[in-house]
Specification:
Layout (H helix, E strand, L loop, with lengths): L7 H14 L3 H7 L42 E7 L8 E3 L2 E8 L4 E8 L5 E9 L18 E2 L3 E8 L2 E8 L4 E9 L14 E3 L2 E6 L6 E6 L5 E6 L10 E5 L2 E8 L2 E5 L6 E6 L10 E3 L2 E6 L5 E6 L6 E5 L9 E3 L2 E5 L4 E6 L5 E6 L9 E3 L2 E5 L4 E5 L8 E6 L9 E3 L2 E10 L2 E10 L3
Antiparallel strand pairs: 1-32, 2-3, 3-4, 4-5, 6-7, 7-8, 8-9, 10-11, 11-12, 12-13, 14-15, 15-16, 16-17, 18-19, 19-20, 20-21, 22-23, 23-24, 24-25, 26-27, 27-28, 28-29, 30-31, 31-32
Organism: Schlesneria paludicola
InterPro entries: PQQ_b-propeller_rpt, PQQ_rpt_dom, Quinoprotein_ADH-like_sf, WD40/YVTN_repeat-like_dom_sf
Protein name: Dehydrogenase
Amino acid sequence: MVVHWIKAASLRVLVGCAALLGLPASALWAQHADLSDFPKLSAESDWPWWRGPSRNGIASATPVPTRLGDTEAVQWKTPVPGRGHSSPIVVGDRVILTTADEQQQIHYVLAFDRQTGRPLWRTEVNRGAFPARNHPKNTEATPSVASDGERLFATFYHHDQVQLVALDLAGRQLWSKTAGAFRPKMYEYGYAPSPLLYRNSVIVAGEWDGNSFLAAFERATGNQLWRTPRPSMISFSSPVVATVAGKDQLLLSGADKVSAYNPATGKLLWSVAGTTAATCGTMVWDGDIVFASGGYPKAQTLAVLADGSGTILWSNNQKCYEQSMLAYQGHVYALTDNGVMFCWNGRNGKEMWRERLAGPVSASPVLAGGHIYWANERGTLYVFKPNPERFELVAENQVGNDAFPSPAICGGQIFLRVAQRNGNDRQEFLYCFANAQ
C-alpha cells in the first residue's frame, strides 16, 4: 500500500476527522507520523530511530503478539556479538544495532536480515581509546542508530570525543566527524544520547563537566550547521523534536532544567527549573504539555506547559531516571526505577492508579496494537492496556535475564535485544516475535 505522508497542518484535519469517527487522535498521529522529510521511510513498516517514527514510543495499531518468550511467538533468534544497550532500529529489510568488543576496544555497527535474523554485515568504526571507566549499567554502545532511509547515523564515545559516523545501508562508511569533546572527570559514567534527525540535519548532544553542547550536522556531508552550548554538568538524555504549542521544539531535560530549542537553529526557546542534575529518559508530550523525569541526585517528575510561559502544571517526587515515560490520550504512564507503575492525569497530575511490579527498570515502553510493552532489567516484559481507570495486565513474559534496550515494533513484528547471563558468562541475542501467519 502506498502511503502519502502529510505535513502537520494537514494532519490536524485528519485528527479532526478521527474525532468524528471516534478514533483516538494519538493513534492516528502514530500511524501518520510526519515523515515528509524522509520519503523512503514508512511509519507502518519502519522503526528508524530511538522511540520510533513518532519519537514518543507509540507505534502503529497493527496487532503483534502479547505472549512471547524463548519458545512462544518467535520468528527468529540470533546471537549478537559484543556488548551494547542500543535499541534496535528497523529500516526496510534490515535491523540495525551497535555493539562494542570491550576487550579489543572496537566499536561496530551491525545489520541483520529482517525476515531471518541472518547477519548481513558488520562495520568497524573505531578501534581503541575507550574510556578508562564507565557506569556498570552503561555500555560502550548505548546510543541507538538513526536512519533517514538512505543512511545510518551512529554516535560513539572514544578518544575523549563523541564521534558521529554516517554509513550507507550496505555498511559502507560515508563520513565521520567529531561532534564535540567529551571527557567527564567528575562522573565517569560514559555516554548515552542517541542522534536525532530533523529535516536535513542530525543533532547530537554531549553533556559533561566541560564544554557541553548541542550540535547539528548536515546529513549528506557531516558539515556543521549550528552549535549551542549546554550547562557543564553530566547528563544522559537524548534530545527529541515534537510539534507542541504550534511549533517544532527540540526538548531536552537535564542540568536541573527542562528546556526547548529551535531545532532548525539551536536557539533557546524557553527553559524552566525542574527535574534533576542528571536525567537519562527522553521527554514525552501530549497536546501542549511536555513531561520529564529525573533521578540524580534527587527525584522529580513534572509537567510543563510548552507555550514558553514557564508554567509548571504539576510535579511529584517519583523517579524515572534511566527509562522514558509514555504519554497517551491525556495520561502519563511511568514505571519507576523500583518497579512501581503509575498512571497520572497529564493536565493536573492526579494519580489515577499505581501497581507494584518489579524493578529495577532501564528500558523504555512502546505502545503497539493497543498494548503497552515494558521490560525491567531482569527480562520480565509486562504487557498491559493503556487504561487510565485501572491497571489491566495482559501478559507477563520472560525474555532473557538481562534487559536494558527497548523494543522496536513495526510491520507486525517485535524486535528485542536482551542478554542471557549464566554466572560470569553473558551472551546477547536479538529476537524477532510475530503472530503466526
